[in-house]
Amino acid sequence: MATGPRYTVPMRRRREARTDYHQRLRLLKSGKPRLVARTSNKHVRAQLIALGPQGDRTLAAARSDDLADFGWEAPTANLPAAYLTGALAGRRAVEANVEAAVLDIGLNSPTPGSKVFAVQEGAIDAGVEVPHNDDVLADWERTRGEHIAEYAESLDEDLYSGDFDATDLPAHFDEVREAILEADL
User: Fold this and answer.
1) How far is CA 183 from the centre of its chain?
2) Which of 34, 93, 133, 149 could form a disulfide with 60, with the two C-beta atoms 3.0–4.6 Å apart?
3) What is the C-alpha separation between 33 and 54, in angstroms, rounded?
């Protein structure tokens, strides 16, 4: 371990590998709220966060388990659920008079077609202006979950445990998407 009079201990969140302060500063300099997209093994979260004098303020938020209120029965950690979570957060942001944001993917790798970019695409379709490059967005067939439905058809048993049939995922996605985009929040 480094010691001596010139050694300074890095900030706690940097030591824990939870915050990239150079990236955060670049995002804050834009002056727009951040569309924070985070994924876990079971859920996807999307938040629109603005910098305030007392710290960050959450303007709108959505979790993938909120999709159950709109009829979502499929798992909540796949690409279609990420898109719908972004759309729900985007609708809530529009209701809170947020017109534009910048995407904050945190320490995730910017892999084209990933769930964090699906969250961004959902927010854009809901009416939030987010600067982006179309090359990072997944194909619409993949966003709808057609690749999951094709895989489920090739299996002899059910893909998911429970009552949901994964072969119906694209149609189910379309129903829930319409419910989110037309709902009064």
Assistant:
1) 19
2) 93
3) 15
pTM score, two decimals? 0.91
What span, in angstroms and rounded, lies between the C-alpha atoms of 120 and 125? 9
**Tens of pLDDT along 59-93?**
999 999 999 999 999 999 999 999 999 999 999 99
Place of tokens 């939030």: 128
Distance (Å, rounded) from C-alpha 55 to C-alpha 49? Answer: 10
Residue with tokens 């824990």: 16
In the block, tokens 């302060």 appear at 21
For residue 157, what is the DSSP state?
Answer: S
Helix intervals (H) in the chain: 12-15, 21-29, 79-95, 115-126, 140-144, 146-154, 169-182
Residue showing tokens 């945190």:
106
User: Can you tell me the mean pLDDT for 159-184?
Assistant: 90
* Main-chain phi, psi angles of 27, to 5 degrees: -70, -40
| pLDDT over threshold 70, residue 144 | yes
From CA 11, how far away is CA 94, in angstroms rounded? Answer: 35
